[in-house]
């Protein structure tokens, strides 16, 4: 059992790509930490540095109390589950599971016992003598898990272990892996680009973007208090609506100016975003989750704005409406734009960095595009192409600096 | 875990709770830890012992540079393999690299070096060696003649008791040299035979005749060059060098006539009238070997003939084999064709039989006088006797050997062509032939062209097919080394290794380099083509 | 009904042509069989169908006839098999070692090394013969076991000859083995040597068989290098021996020669059948002999 600690870790590849920049992260003992982020953001690289499969360019990684920078993977006492499972095709399931133990020259009886234990735990007993190619995807996945757990390592490292499974199996395995980890209590770093996996499995979730760690927190905190525009846009489906807006001082209290309407802000808003008052009369970014948008008639007396309904998706339990309101949408670049964006010669952002201003595209509102997603109750009569009057529940909205993208906290 | 297992149709007999590792898994642990270490130490010690011994031999032979070089290589080995966890790639690459360097890269440099030298039968020595060999070989009989009594000393070594025919001076001649002795120590017995001094026994009767060969080879070296040589069993004469070397002027001088031989800069001593000493030496002569191919008619004619024939041979072999192979593959390429697998197996028989055996068998089959083929045919064909028929034979036999390869390749390639493409063309109204021409063939060529080029390059140097069937023969009318069916490589081989007309390593190496450039150009075009294909995909 | 996709009857001409081709393909090998058992031992006496059956021809291979050509069939055969097996084994082994390094390690000079190998592979080994002859001659003066007329020297030359092409072939295959397998083994505690033996080699069996098989058959077939390096008839390999055997007295030795051929082709054919499935796959990738 051990914690894993990243301290100011950088990874620069030979070709100049800076895959991980100044990463500091504490994974607590016994914790299930999920590392999430869009494709290419450096999750795998970070994980492989812990595994000893990738050299650390600068900074330190420690497992327990030992700095492991210069230890081979063999000496780090970790186990890793690969995305494509990396089962040895020429070995039986039992030999696959026993592989690491045999390399460590464990006594025969112990190997047999451990293999049996792991196989029982993972329901693999009937398949022990089969070859990997004679197994289904889910079974292979479990063999890969088995190979990791038999050795009882200090740390599990898992790199998108479920991404090769079909949707239904993925849901099932999600629960099984989380369960297994709880039973074993082994510190686990789990990499995924699927935010649902991240939210459902992790004790804590670390969000990365372009090599930079954005926020580490419990799943609900990430949702309720994203640290910056990137996290706000990445976590949650449908993604948070973000617009350029201004905040005005209204005597003692503040009000939000959006699409020509004025929404008074309650005092506790200010308390959650204490820096907001400093931004009065300045351009800011406001973030509104789809469930905080309501039809105006449901909230009589609230200020409202008009949006043209461009698209409707009826899900049965709710309807998702895509509207266009008279405001400038702020989109977050989830995919890195060009490789040179992340190269070493670009200065790494300092401190708790956020996406730089140039990563924020602004899209001019136009009648052809929709810029706002809203979740409406079912059976609300809405017609495509018509103007819909909507209002916003300001109790849960978020505020960010328009330049840095950071939350105004 | 959930009841995933129950949903799988699997019999309980499959269940095994006791884990038995497979042999592979066990093999794995064999190479870890101590086992691997012991193997490593044993191999390394063996290597050290063997190479160490070679180094000692080299030192003993005074080849200091080679000894040090070998020692350095050994040092590299020990260094690489004794450093734990370091220099990993080197550990894996070293054995292959050493082999490659010793028997491929060094020879390549050697070949290049040789190509710029005059290096042939009479030019294999260094200059110093050539000088002393010339002096040794050019001996003329001196003025003296000796009566000889072959004797043996107590150890059984041959000693000649010699009496100068004119002066009566007496000597003992040993393998180590000549020793003058007092004539009084020698007596002549009642039969007029010489009785050797004490400690020596004269050879008589059968012993004497039995030592015949030993005597003939026996020489008593003289100070200042020359030697005393035996003549028959009772006479000996002195021989003196017929040539002298004048170091200061670097000339050889004939001792009797005073004629001077000067270094012509091309590895020979020649007189002003162009007379050459037989033994020459290796000498750098620049591009002469290369230009000889163009300028020297004696070289140019056979080279060009062999070159043209090489191209004709390789091209017709490859094209015919490919065409026939494709034709047969197309015949077989029909869904649910009966006996398809049987036919294929029978058709690739020539590919499975080692080529050298087939070639030797064909040599018998095509024998002009007794061969079975001529017996079966209603008329006699001079298969191997006539130059043109010999060429035809070489091509036919090569086609026989190569066709199965293209059959296999084409069958594979035809299968890889998506059926929809052919069907689409059919639906568009193309006939069978048009489909083949416009769809199948172009697609097939995309895959097969690099292989055709590779096969061409291979046949370009197909020594066996020529040498084992015709030996390059029949001999051509101009009596040069290159026979009618010699391709460049067999011509080169003959130049270098068939002593009949004198070996010429320099010229052979130069032609080797020409061949290299030709083959490299062909391979490069094949390589670029397959690269181009890759990019297209 | 007339189904245009099924017209079996039209196939007779295909069968006819194929049978003609087959007859041509198998005629020489069949003839060898009949000649080997033909009591008419001379070439002039041969016929396609033997007039009477005999085993004398085989005896002729093992028993020296008075005044006849020198025959050391057993020695030739043994020499060829031993050298072919050793060459196949070491070619695979040494080649795989290097290919593993080129495929899995990143080191300075790696790309250059591969390109260099590609280049020298174009220098046909045969062209080096003069130099190789002289090197072996000199080596023999120091280490007689590696000198002229020694199979060990021949083996070393064979090993280096096809190294680069085999290395490319094997590296290509190794590259197709997912690196996750090595990495997973590394995390499990395997050393590079263990990964090589336990993971890469077992998975590379197809390419190793093909390379080994071609090294084996190639060695059995090789004439030119052997003829330069081996000097005395008792040290010959099969091709040299059989060639010398029939060229000294072609006419008379024909029957025994055929018997020798019959025996000599067994190892290669056995090997061929053994790895046939890999070869046919390998051929289309343009990797092997043509
Ligand atoms: N060996 C390498 N050499 C150079 N650049 C690399 C290497 N491996 C990864 N990269 C680059 O580093 C960045 C991060 O890669 P990484 O594999 O860590 O992404 P990831 O977050 O795991 O993405 P995914 O979700 O797609 O797996 C990418 O831009 C990638 O192109
Ligand atoms: Mg990844």
Helix count of chain A equals 9
Structural class of chain B: alpha+beta
Largest sheet of chain B: 8 strands, antiparallel
**Shape descriptor of chain B:** elongated
Distance between the termini of chain A: 36 Å
Under the CATH scheme, the architecture of the largest domain in chain B is Orthogonal Bundle
Radius of gyration of chain A over alpha carbons? 25 Å
**How many discrete domains of chain B?**
3
Relevant CATH superfamily of the largest domain in chain B: MetI-like
Unreliable spans of chain A are: 335-367
Ligand roster: adenosine-5'-triphosphate, magnesium ion
> β content of chain B, as a range?
5-15%
Give the termini distance of chain B in whole angstroms. Answer: 45 Å
Global mean pLDDT of chain B: 81
- Biggest protein-protein interface? B-C, 110 and 98 residues
Question: Which regions of chain B have little confidence, pLDDT < 50, spanning 5+ residues?
Answer: 1-17
Regarding quaternary structure, what we see is heterotrimer
* Rg over CA atoms of chain B: 36 Å
Model description:
The radius of gyration of chain A is 25 Å and the shape is elongated. In chain A, helix 2 crosses helix 3, helix 2 runs parallel beside helix 4 and helix 3 crosses helix 4. Chain A has 409 residues and is α+β, with helices and mostly antiparallel strands. Chain A contains nine helices and 22 strands. By secondary structure, chain B is an alpha+beta fold. The two termini of chain C are 47 Å apart. With 290 residues, chain C is mainly alpha-helical. The C terminus of chain C is likely disordered. Chain C contains 13 helices and no strands. In chain C, 71% of the residues lie in helices and 0% in strands. Chain C has two domains: 55 residues, no CATH class; 217 residues, MetI-like fold, CATH 1.10.3720.10. Chains B and C meet through helix 2, helix 3, helix 5, helix 10 and helix 11 of B and helix 1, helix 3, helix 4, helix 5 and helix 6 of C.
Blueprint of the fold:
The complex is a heterotrimer of chains A (409), B (537) and C (290).
Chain A (H helix, E strand, L loop, with lengths): L3 E9 L5 E10 L4 E5 L6 H9 L6 E6 L2 E2 L10 E4 L11 H11 L4 H14 L15 H13 L5 E5 L7 H18 L2 E6 L2 H7 L2 E6 L2 E6 L1 H6 L4 H6 L6 E10 L2 E6 L2 E4 L2 H6 L10 E6 L4 E3 L9 E10 L4 E7 L3 E4 L27 E4 L8 E5 L10 E6 L5 E4 L8
Helix pairs in contact in A: 2-3, 2-4, 3-4
Chain B lengths: L3 H4 L15 H8 L2 H28 L3 H19 L5 H28 L1 E2 L8 H11 L1 E14 L5 E7 L5 E5 L2 E5 L5 E2 L5 E2 L5 E2 L2 H6 L1 H6 L1 E3 L5 E5 L3 E7 L1 E4 L4 E4 L5 E4 L5 E2 L12 E2 L3 H8 L1 H36 L7 H8 L1 H4 L2 H11 L6 H5 L10 H30 L2 H9 L4 H29 L2 H5 L20 H10 L7 H32 L1
Antiparallel strand pairs in B: 1-16, 2-3, 2-8, 2-11, 3-4, 4-5, 6-7, 9-10, 10-11, 12-13, 13-14, 14-15
Helix pairs in contact in B: 3-4, 5-20, 9-10, 9-20, 10-15, 10-17, 15-17, 16-17, 17-20, 19-20
Chain C lengths: L11 H26 L18 H7 L10 H32 L5 H12 L7 H14 L8 H11 L1 H13 L3 H9 L4 H12 L1 H17 L2 H6 L8 H11 L1 H35 L6
Helix pairs in contact in C: 1-13, 2-13, 3-6, 3-7, 3-10, 3-12, 4-7, 8-9, 10-13, 12-13
The complex binds adenosine-5'-triphosphate and magnesium ion.
């Amino acid at each position: 059992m051990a914690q894993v600690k990243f301290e100011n870790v950088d990874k620069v590849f030979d070709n100049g790509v800076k895959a991980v920049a100044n990463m500091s992260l504490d994974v607590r003992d016994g914790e299930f930490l999920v590392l999430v982020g869009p494709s290419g953001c450096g999750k795998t690289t970070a994980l492989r540095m812990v595994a000893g499969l990738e050299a650390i360019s600068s900074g330190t990684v420690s497992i327990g109390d030992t700095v492991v920078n210069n230890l081979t993977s063999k000496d780090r006492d970790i186990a890793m589950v690969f995305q494509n499972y990396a089962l040895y095709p020429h070995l039986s399931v039992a030999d696959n599971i026993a592989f690491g133990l045999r390399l460590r020259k464990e006594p025969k009886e112990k190997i047999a016992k451990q293999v049996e234990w792991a196989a029982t735990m993972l329901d693999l007993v009937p398949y022990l003598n089969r070859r990997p190619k004679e197994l289904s995807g889910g079974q292979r996945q479990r063999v890969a898990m088995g190979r990791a757990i038999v050795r009882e390592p200090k740390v599990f490292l898992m790199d998108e272990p479920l991404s090769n499974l079909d949707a239904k199996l993925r849901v099932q395995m999600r629960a099984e892996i989380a369960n297994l980890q709880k039973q074993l209590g082994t510190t686990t770093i789990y990499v995924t680009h699927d935010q649902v996996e991240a939210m459902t499995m992790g004790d804590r979730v670390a969000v990365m973007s372009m090599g930079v760690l954005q926020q580490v927190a419990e799943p609900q905190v990430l949702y309720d208090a994203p640290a910056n525009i990137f996290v706000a846009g990445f976590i949650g489906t449908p993604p948070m609506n973000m617009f350029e807006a201004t905040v005005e001082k209204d005597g003692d209290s503040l009000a939000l100016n959006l699409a020509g309407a004025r929404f008074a802000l309650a005092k506790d808003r200010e308390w959650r975003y204490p820096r907001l008052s400093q931004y009065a009369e300045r351009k800011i970014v406001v973030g509104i989750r789809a469930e905080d948008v309501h039809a105006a008639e449901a909230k009589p007396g609230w200020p409202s704005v008009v949006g043209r309904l461009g698209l409707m998706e009826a899900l049965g339990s709710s309807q998702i409406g895509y509207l266009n309101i008279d405001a400038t949408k702020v989109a977050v670049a989830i995919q890195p734009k060009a490789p040179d964006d992340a190269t070493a010669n670009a200065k790494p952002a300092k401190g708790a960095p956020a996406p730089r201003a140039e990563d924020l595209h602004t899209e001019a509102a136009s009648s052809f595009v929709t810029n706002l997603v809203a979740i409406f109750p079912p059976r609300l009569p809405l017609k495509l192409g018509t103007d819909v009057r909507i209002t916003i529940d300001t109790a849960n909205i978020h505020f960010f600096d328009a330049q840095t993208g950071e939350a105004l906290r | 875990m959930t009841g995933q297992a129950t949903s799988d149709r699997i019999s309980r007999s499959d269940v095994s709770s006791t884990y038995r590792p497979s042999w592979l898994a066990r093999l794995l642990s064999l190479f870890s830890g101590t086992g691997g270490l012991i193997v490593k130490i044993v191999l390394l010690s063996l290597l050290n012992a063997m190479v160490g011994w070679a180094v000692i031999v080299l030192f003993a032979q005074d080849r200091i540079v080679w000894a040090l070089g070998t020692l350095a290589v050994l040092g590299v080995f020990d260094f690489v393999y004794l450093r734990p966890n370091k220099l990993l790639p080197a550990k894996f690459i070293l054995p292959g690299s050493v082999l490659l360097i010793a028997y491929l890269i060094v020879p390549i440099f050697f070949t290049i070096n040789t190509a710029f030298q005059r290096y042939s039968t009479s030019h294999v020595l260094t200059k110093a060696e050539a000088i002393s060999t010339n002096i040794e070989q050019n001996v003329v009989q001196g003025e003296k003649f000796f009566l000889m009594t072959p004797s043996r000393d107590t150890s059984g070594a041959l000693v000649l008791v010699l009496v100068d025919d004119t002066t009566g001076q007496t000597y003992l001649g040993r393998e180590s040299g000549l020793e003058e002795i007092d004539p009084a120590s020698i007596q002549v017995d009642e039969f007029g035979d010489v009785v050797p001094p004490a400690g020596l026994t004269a050879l008589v009767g059968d012993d004497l005749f039995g030592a015949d060969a030993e005597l003939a080879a026996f020489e008593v070296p003289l100070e200042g060059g020359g030697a005393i040589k035996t003549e028959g069993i009772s006479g000996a004469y002195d021989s003196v060098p017929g040539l002298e070397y004048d170091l200061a002027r670097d000339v050889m001088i004939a001792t009797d006539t005073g004629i001077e031989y000067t270094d012509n800069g091309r590895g020979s001593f020649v007189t002003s009238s162009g007379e050459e000493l037989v033994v020459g030496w290796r000498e750098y002569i620049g591009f002469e070997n290369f230009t000889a191919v163009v300028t020297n008619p004696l070289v140019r004619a056979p080279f060009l003939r062999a070159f043209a024939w090489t191209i004709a041979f390789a091209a017709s072999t490859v094209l015919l084999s490919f065409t026939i192979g494709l034709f047969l593959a197309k015949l077989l390429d029909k869904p649910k064709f009966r006996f398809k697998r049987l036919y294929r197996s029978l058709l690739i028989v020539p590919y499975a039989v080692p080529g050298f055996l087939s070639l030797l068998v064909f040599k018998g089959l095509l024998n002009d006088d007794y061969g079975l083929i001529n017996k079966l045919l209603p008329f006699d064909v001079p298969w191997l006797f006539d130059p043109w028929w010999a060429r035809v034979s070489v091509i036919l036999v090569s086609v026989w050997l190569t066709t199965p390869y293209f059959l296999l390749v084409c069958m594979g390639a035809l299968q890889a062509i998506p059926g929809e493409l052919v069907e689409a063309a059919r639906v568009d109204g193309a006939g069978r032939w048009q489909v083949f021409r416009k769809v199948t063939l172009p697609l097939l060529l995309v895959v097969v062209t690099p292989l055709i080029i590779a096969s061409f390059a291979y046949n370009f140097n197909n020594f066996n097919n020529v040498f084992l069937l015709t030996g390059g023969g029949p001999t051509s009318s101009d009596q040069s080394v290159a026979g009618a069916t010699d391709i460049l490589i067999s011509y080169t081989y003959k130049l270098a290794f068939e002593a009949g007309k004198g070996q010429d390593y320099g010229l052979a190496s130069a032609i080797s380099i020409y061949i290299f450039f030709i083959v490299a150009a062909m391979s490069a075009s094949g390589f670029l083509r397959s690269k181009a294909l890759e990019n297209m995909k | 009904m007339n189904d245009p996709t099924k017209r079996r009857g039209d196939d007779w001409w295909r069968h006819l042509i194929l049978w003609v081709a087959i007859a041509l393909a198998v005629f020489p090998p069949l003839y060898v069989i009949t000649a080997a058992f033909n009591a008419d031992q001379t070439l002039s006496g041969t016929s396609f169908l033997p007039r009477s059956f005999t085993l004398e021809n085989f005896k002729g291979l093992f028993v020296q006839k008075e005044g006849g050509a020198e025959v050391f069939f057993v020695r030739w055969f043994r020499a060829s098999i031993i050298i072919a097996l050793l060459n196949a084994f070491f070619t695979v082994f040494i080649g795989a070692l290097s290919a593993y390094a080129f495929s899995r390690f990143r080191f300075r000079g790696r790309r250059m090394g591969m390109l260099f190998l590609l280049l020298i592979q174009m220098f046909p080994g045969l062209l080096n013969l003069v130099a190789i002859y002289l090197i072996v001659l000199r080596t023999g003066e120091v280490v007689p076991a590696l000198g002229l007329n020694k199979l060990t020297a021949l083996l070393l030359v064979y090993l280096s000859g096809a190294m680069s092409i085999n290395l490319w072939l094997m590296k290509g295959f190794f590259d197709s083995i997912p690196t996750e397998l090595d990495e997973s083994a590394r995390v499990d505690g395997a050393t590079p040597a263990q990964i090589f033996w336990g993971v890469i080699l077992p998975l590379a069996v197809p390419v190793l068989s093909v390379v080994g098989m071609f090294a084996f058959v190639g060695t059995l077939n090789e004439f030119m290098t052997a003829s330069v390096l081996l000097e005395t008839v008792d040290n010959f390999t099969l091709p040299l021996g059989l060639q010398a055997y029939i060229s000294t007295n072609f006419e008379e030795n024909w029957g025994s020669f055929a018997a020798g051929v019959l025996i000599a082709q067994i190892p290669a054919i056995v090997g061929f059948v053994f790895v046939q499935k890999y070869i046919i796959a390998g051929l289309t990738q343009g990797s092997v002999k043509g």
